[in-house]
Amino acid sequence: MTGKTEDLSATLANLRGDYRALVQRLEANEREFQRLGRAVFRVEEEERRRLARELHDGLGQNLTALKHRLALLASQLGDSRPDLQPDIDASLALCSQGLADTRELSRLLRPQVLDDLGLEAALDWLARTLGTSGGLAIEIRADGLPALEPDLQTLVFRLAQEALANVTRHAGASQAIVSVRVHAGMLRLTVWDDGPGFDVVAAMEKSRRGESTGLGGMKDRVALYGGHLHLESGDDGTRLAAAVPIPGESGILPP
Ligand SMILES: Nc1ncnc2c1ncn2[C@@H]1O[C@H](COP(=O)(O)OP(=O)(O)OP(=O)(O)O)[C@@H](O)[C@H]1O
Ligand SMILES: [Mg+2]
């Protein structure tokens, strides 16, 4: 080998080394970014949990007490002031509505059932809540799941919550199916609806321009867990599919 060729191979070897080091640094930065992103969501969920409890135990208890006091007052008045009865009835109805709204808001912020009974029960509750208010038939297929870490359960619940909110608000569908299963080390969620469909590319653009947060937020959140999100819409309805690796099962270590 001539001196020039030796120089060239040494330079190439150096370049390859630099390139490898750069790729490793980029991968490390990406992992750190994902870890921080997941930590932000964890803090957000914790704050939602606290607010949900505060609403339920604070405002909720006060409204219950107020309702009981009004009912007591009404019974003490008996038949002596029939002119006050309509106002008392209206006040009791307002208390009941306020109490129901408070409980609903508290559950939507962070459903206790997710922490107490897990993902399948929380999805059943979500389907019941959204189904009764919108006249949409929602089926949940999430039985036989293995034990999943709380972060993943929360992720899937929030994805299903946003996807079903989109179905009720935009799809004009009469039926939706939510399915969660584990296959080949991946946790897979699909949400299908039988609506007439929409322009997915235009909707994603809208999201990228910051005019909506739902679809973009779901995509970002899935990416933080090393997964991917796919959306297709057409004559057969709309299908949102998310796949996320399960730590430990797919060679990826927990954070
Ligand atoms: N299942 C669906 N069926 C029909 N259209 C949908 C469906 N999901 C999303 N879309 C369309 O995609 C758009 C973007 O959805 P995205 O969730 O990002 O925003 P949004 O629901 O309008 O507002 P938000 O930021 O409150 O979620 C919607 O405005 C709607 O036009
Ligand atoms: Mg939305």
From TrEMBL:
Signal sequence region: none
InterPro entries linked: HATPase_C_sf (IPR036890), HATPase_dom (IPR003594), Sensor_HK_TwoCompSys (IPR050482), Sig_transdc_His_kin_sub3_dim/P (IPR011712)
Family matches, as PANTHER family: NITRATE/NITRITE SENSOR PROTEIN NARX-RELATED, SIGNAL TRANSDUCTION HISTIDINE-PROTEIN KINASE_PHOSPHATASE UHPB
Family annotation (SMART domains): HATPase_c (SM00387)
Cytoplasm is among the record's keywords: no
Domain of life of the native organism: Bacteria
Protein name as it appears in the record: Histidine kinase/HSP90-like ATPase domain-containing protein
Histidine kinase/HSP90-like ATPase domain location: 151-248
Coiled coil: none
Keywords: Kinase, Transferase, Two-component regulatory system
Pfam families: HATPase_c, HisKA_3
Originating organism: Arenimonas donghaensis DSM 18148 = HO3-R19
Gene Ontology CC annotation, any one: membrane
GO MF annotations, alphabetized: phosphorelay sensor kinase activity; protein dimerization activity
